[in-house]
Please model this.
Amino acid sequence: MKKTLAIVAATMLLAVGTIVLIAQQRGGPPPPMSFFVTSAGKGDGANYGGLAGADAYCQMLGTQAGRGASTWHAYMSTQGAGAVNARDRIGNGPWYNQKGQLVAMNVAQLHGDTVEQARLGNALGKQFSLTEKGGIVNGVGDMPNTHDILTGSQPDGRAYTDNMDHTCTNYSSNADGRGQVQLGHTDKQGGGNSSWNSAHGSRGCSQQNLVSTGGAGLLYCFAIN
Model:
């Protein structure tokens, strides 16, 4: 049964990719962008003014890239009362990067919810996790390395439930010494694992510490419609 599910999932991904390729070869338009990595951070460390501010930043960059008709949300979890899971706020998929390339079919495949989905993986990585401008984010081996992405999330896309601050006070702090933010890697490299959304924590919440950890305060942005 598991082998059959894996074959079906792989066939679906191949079919969608083939459709996109054929459309492009025939001169048809690729699917519109519904996922991107911000080409620049806000510059105030992990302080985005909370989820609302992070969503507004994604919306601004999406609009500048010609995709303002969609509603954009930042891939971020929060902690504490009314905690929010990043996976629950990004829509249902499928999602395509700036070049119209498929990065994931749905939330379950994006996070590898089943053994088969985890084995197949999503298409995120250095060549597919593109910015809203179609650029490649610097990763391991590049100078400077900016592959760290603010997510505040566990690998399954859900919020942390312990007493440690994994979100820099829910993305409202740029102060060091009182918390950190959980980070993913656009290139799936480094940090002792290959996680796109939960590789390690930052050294602090300031812009300086985000940079020294290997980032620039960047975000993942998903179109929810």
